[in-house]
């Protein structure tokens, strides 16, 4: 299964978007998890 160039671009774009989403949401998730641990 060999992907064409536009398909590779779509795969790489998906990886970039998902990586950015994780990087932006991870600090908030860690902060709220810390709050939950401290408040209970």
UniProtKB/TrEMBL annotation:
Membrane in keyword set: yes
Membrane topology: Multi-pass membrane protein
Coiled coil: none
GO cellular component entries: membrane
Highest taxon of the lineage: Bacteria
Compartment list: Membrane
SUPFAM superfamilies, per the entry: MetI-like
Record keywords, A-Z: Membrane, Transmembrane, Transmembrane helix
Protein name: Molybdenum ABC transporter permease
Species: Escherichia coli
């Amino acid at each position: 299964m060999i992907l064409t160039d536009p398909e590779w671009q779509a795969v790489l774009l998906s990886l970039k978007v998902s990586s950015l989403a994780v990087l932006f949401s991870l600090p908030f998730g860690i902060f709220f998890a810390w709050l939950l641990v401290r408040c209970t």
